[in-house]
């Protein structure tokens, strides 16, 4: 492998932060391999995304802005990625470890017989060989897996782990020709995106609620208010999702999403191992719970014991006041 290709997720003409992280990770890997960084942007408003990407450390941006692919699901995205990869030759492909990133990455891998490493937290290049660092077994074991006997490798990187660097490249924008295919799939509604304005995978602050919330109202009320004050997102435990208080797109944990925000605030969450594996790599973990002996207190950086319904609104006021003072 010489070149590195970053697949860019976007919405409304704006690239997801995890995709910018993918570009920066691609730059470091390509420099070590002696190759170039390619970015692939496909779908509605791809041209606007490509223009913004020119400020990132990328050498060539491949753009497919074809109206025919607007509601055709994942396949047009995979087609675009495959065409760029085959033209570039043996390459490392970096996608975000998100629902769309994993879907596109795995379908691409099946087409070109590529190796796949998921939930990657580090990329190493040793004597021209690419290896990926990835936590396993709930983070209790760290593995380093190299790509062997394949021309292409796919690395799905964990959001909020790879740094975004301000190092513009000399990006060349190249238009991709439409495939001419007729796609059988038509997407009528995007439930996952409608569930959260900012995904928990990318938010720098996540405020999660659990069984202790007692119902759905706090998720759209006080937890949402605190998350908004921070500029973050609302998360949830499996118990809250199973109770129907909030959609699965917000779930953090073993059967939900694995996240690494700089700040994680768990409100009314016991901290069972299934939840812990989804947020244990957060920078700072703050737990708010009425029970001083709650399991999450054993690994939280700060445990605040008391009534969350009194504490959270006051915390929200303080955050807003601090932001106003620094505005």
Verbal overview:
The strands form 4 sheets. Strands 7-11-6-1-4-5-12 form a 7-stranded parallel β-sheet, with helices on both faces. Strand 8 and strand 9 (129-136) form a beta hairpin. It has 10 helices and 17 strands. The chain starts with a strand and ends with a helix. Helix 3 crosses helix 4 (99-112). The chain has helices at residues 17-33, 46-53, 75-88, 99-112, 191-195, 217-220, 222-230, 238-242, 273-279, 308-325, and strands at 3-8, 10-11, 14-15, 37-42, 60-64, 91-96, 115-120, 122-126, 129-136, 141-146, 152-157, 172-175, 205-209, 233-236, 263-267, 284-289, 302-305. It is α/β, with parallel strands linked by helices.
Please outline the helices and strands.
Elements: E1 3-8, E2 10-11, E3 14-15, H1 17-33, E4 37-42, H2 46-53, E5 60-64, H3 75-88, E6 91-96, H4 99-112, E7 115-120, E8 122-126, E9 129-136, E10 141-146, E11 152-157, E12 172-175, H5 191-195, E13 205-209, H6 217-220, H7 222-230, E14 233-236, H8 238-242, E15 263-267, H9 273-279, E16 284-289, E17 302-305, H10 308-325
Parallel strand pairs: 1-4, 1-6, 4-5, 5-12, 6-11, 7-11, 13-14, 13-15, 15-16, 16-17
Antiparallel strand pairs: 2-3, 8-9, 9-10
Main sheet specs = 7 strands, parallel
Helix content: 25-40%
Overall pLDDT confidence: 91
By helix and strand content, what is the structural category? alpha/beta
Beta-strand fraction estimate: 25-35%
Radius of gyration: 21 Å
First-residue to last-residue Cα separation: 47 Å
């Amino acid at each position: 492998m010489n070149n590195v290709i970053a697949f860019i997720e976007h919405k409304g003409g704006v690239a997801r932060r995890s995709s910018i992280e993918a570009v920066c990770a691609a730059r470091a890997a390509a420099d070590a391999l002696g190759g170039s960084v390619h970015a692939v942007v496909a779908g509605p408003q791809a041209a606007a995304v490509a223009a913004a990407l020119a400020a990132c450390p990328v050498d060539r941006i491949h753009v497919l802005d074809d109206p025919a692919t607007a509601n055709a699901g994942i396949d047009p995205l995979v087609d675009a990625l495959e065409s760029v990869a085959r033209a570039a030759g043996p390459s490392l492909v970096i996608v975000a470890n998100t629902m769309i990133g994993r879907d596109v990455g795995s379908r691409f891998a099946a087409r070109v017989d590529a190796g796949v490493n998921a939930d990657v937290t580090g990329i190493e290049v040793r004597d021209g060989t690419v290896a990926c660092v990835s936590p396993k077994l709930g983070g209790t074991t760290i593995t380093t897996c190299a790509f062997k006997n394949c021309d292409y490798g796919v690395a799905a990187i964990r959001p909020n782990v790879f740094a975004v660097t301000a190092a513009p490249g000399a990006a060349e924008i190249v238009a991709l020709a439409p495939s001419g295919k007729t796609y059988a799939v038509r997407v009528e509604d995007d439930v996952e995106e409608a569930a959260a304005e900012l995904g928990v995978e990318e938010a720098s602050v996540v405020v999660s609620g659990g069984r202790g919330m007692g119902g759905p109202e706090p998720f759209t009320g006080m937890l949402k208010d605190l998350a908004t004050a921070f500029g973050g997102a609302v998360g949830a435990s499996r118990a809250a999702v199973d109770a129907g208080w909030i959609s699965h797109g917000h779930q953090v944990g073993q059967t939900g999403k694995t996240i690494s925000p700089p700040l994680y605030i768990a409100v009314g969450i016991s901290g069972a191992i299934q939840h812990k594996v989804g947020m244990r790599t957060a920078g700072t973990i703050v737990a708010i719970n009425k029970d001083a002996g709650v399991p999450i207190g054993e690994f939280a950086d700060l445990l605040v014991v008391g009534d969350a319904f009194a504490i959270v609104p006051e915390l929200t006021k303080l955050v807003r006041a601090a932001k106003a003072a620094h505005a």
